[in-house]
Amino acid sequence: MKFLYVLPDWEGSSSDSGVLKDAMRIDREDAFVVPQGKYNLVDVGYTNGPGFLSPFRCTRYHLKEWVASQQRHQNEKELYNLRHARARNVVERTFRLLKRHKLYGLLCTLLFVT
């Protein structure tokens, strides 16, 4: 996994969309910019937009739903959501590992040494 951008100093209870909005402010010297033709996976709390792909709403999404049903996808939306969930699961697992091993704070410190 390759980290493209880290924005530390936000409380854990902050809304994801608020953090993203702050990261993308054009008046930030270190603003988060999505390169042309690239996309970021976001959860259902966001909307699809340039550079952001969220899952389809009201369509099976969570991996445990797939395992429990033991069925293949029924349509393109379910297939997209399955692949989205698998990819996003890698991101979530990576952050869990970093936090478990107390490396998240170290990562932020190393990236933002001035």
Automatic annotation (TrEMBL):
GO terms under cellular component: nucleus
Protein's organism: Hordeum vulgare subsp. vulgare
InterPro entries tied to this protein? HARBI1-like, HARBI1_dom
PANTHER family attached to this UniProt entry: NUCLEASE (PTHR22930:SF281), PTHR22930
Q: Which family does it belong to?
A: Belongs to the HARBI1 family.
Ranges in a coiled coil = none
Name the UniProt record assigns to this protein: Predicted protein
Record keywords, A-Z: Hydrolase, Metal-binding, Nuclease, Nucleus
Q: Where is the DDE Tnp4 domain?
A: 2-101
- Cofactor(s) listed in the protein's UniProt record: a divalent metal cation
Where in or outside the cell is it found? Answer: Nucleus
Which GO molecular-function terms appear in the entry? hydrolase activity; metal ion binding; nuclease activity
